[in-house]
Specification:
5 strands, Helix Hairpins, alpha/beta, Pyruvate Kinase, Chain: A, domain 1, 305 residues, five-stranded mixed beta sheet, 13% strand
Length: 305
Amino acid sequence: MSQRDVKNRISSIRNIEKVTRAMEMVSAARLRRAEQRIAALRPYAGAIRRMTRQAAEAAGAEAARLPLLREHEREHRVALLLVTGDRGLAGAFNSQIIRAGIRSGQEHASEGQEVSWYASGRRGVSSLTFRGRALAGSYIGFTDRPSYADARHIADDLMTAYVDDDVDRVEIFYNGYISPLTQRVRHETLLPLQQATVLEEGGEGEDEEEEDEAGQGGHRALVEYEPGPDEILRRLIPDYVEISIYRALLESTASEHGARMTAMRNASENAGDLIEDLTLEMNRERQAEITQEIMEVVAGAEALR
């Protein structure tokens, strides 16, 4: 490779490095905003979760009569919602969700269940379509900054499918945000609610709040519901499903920005290492040419003696 070729490669890599540095900075700024939105949502999501569980306990047998709390006798069809991004260049962010969803779909199929596919994000939609999966619902264009209206749209489709007996179970796959360097694939059940995490103990920040609400004798304060707990539960359940999907969208957005920031930082560092290697190679070539020229001059001088 000539010096000119090496110089051209170094120039191209420097341009790529500038782009990856800029993308890293943009992702870092968007990540901070996404973290703030998650922090602002957690108290509300925790309150909805706590109130829904308490209302379900108070409603007792009446809760089972609500359409979204009614468990289907047999699970013939399962809805899988895959939450991905609209863009790539984020490492394994999209691919790990798609792999987990496809693997789960194959497991359900091996058990004789039909799978109804739903996907959020262009990457998930295109990947499932490419693999020949027919989509019952696709949602794109908002993964950089999802709104509550986007979550409500998805939730309405899934709740309608469940109430109309088009699906007997709803599961969701998304990247849970832990840190800019770490995103964990989360697989949760949304419907039926008896199998969802909303009715389980140990939600984030709930244990401390419930301890504060408990009396000195260790008993939870009595609550009188007006209207009845079943009516309140009827209003709370759609809110819970919507807030659960909204939380997943926000977590996925933060995870995407974190994954892209990390990927672009690694790309920039690799570009810097490659530039150093090419610069060293160019210097060696230059030194070899200078040495060759000196040897030719010396040889010419010797010939003139």
